[in-house]
Amino acid sequence: MIEKNGTWELVDRPTEIPVIGVKWVYKTKLNLDGSVQKNKARLVAKGYAQKPGLDYNETYAPVARLNTVRTLIALAAQKEWKLYQLDVKSSFLNGVLPWLLIVSIYVDDIVYTGSCTELLDEFKEEMMMKYEMTDLGLLHHFHGWEWSKQTQAYSFTKRTTEKLVKVDGSGAASEEQYRSIVGNLLYLTATRPNIMYAFSLLARFMHCPTNKHYGTAKRVLSKSTFGYAFSFGRDVFSWALVKQNCVALFTAEAEYISASKATAQAIWLRFVLEDFGELQTEATPLECDNTSAIAITKNPMFH
């Protein structure tokens, strides 16, 4: 495939410029049921031997955010459009692709949709003529997420094989520190029911915890977080639960920060929908259940 696409031209080795080596990276791509779908190979440069600005300039391949893909899927569900998927057999940085309809590209995976069936078929034929790719038909899985079509909605599940076990080979962790973290998590479950399952799982390894258990416990710590969820019609399609990047001095301020982050996300989602041809002419309602935080937003002295 590299030779067929004329990826490079063979030249004499330069004497004044350091030559960067390459390495083949092999990966087995699995189906959602765990069976082998195909074997993949990637040729990569040993970039760790380079220095930015000296050996190379910035190299960037734009990909769609998962939020964008979910927005596209929510829009297609509302419009009752069919979603299709193509898999490119080879991908290259800075590759030029024709743009038709609404197309979302993540490296070598393409999801596309639209209201015109003829245009969808034309797009697929053009792409398959210009590039070697596999027609995967209707969207059924995308980067480990399994999608299933329902009436005016899509449901999706994420399957993972990550499990905590008694002996995992990661080495022993401090039992005292681990028990301290898990104890604090127990206290937090009184007001944070979303971490109850994670706490109950971590509590099984109070004796002889490993570094993996300790690292998992640290990721669960919810010291100062914000969360939001956006719906398109009746379907929730964009959400987040992220640690805040600044310290709130009181609960209302924490809620105000959450509202601010949600507002930024709402503005971005409106831009995405406008790109999809769905200009939002009305304001996006933002719901918050903290009276003090709402009062702060209405008081210009706090802005």
TrEMBL record:
Q: Which residues form the Reverse transcriptase Ty1/copia-type domain?
A: 5-96, 101-158
Q: Which domain of life is it from?
A: Eukaryota
Name-wise, this protein is Reverse transcriptase Ty1/copia-type domain-containing protein
Which species is listed as the source?
Prunus dulcis (Almond)
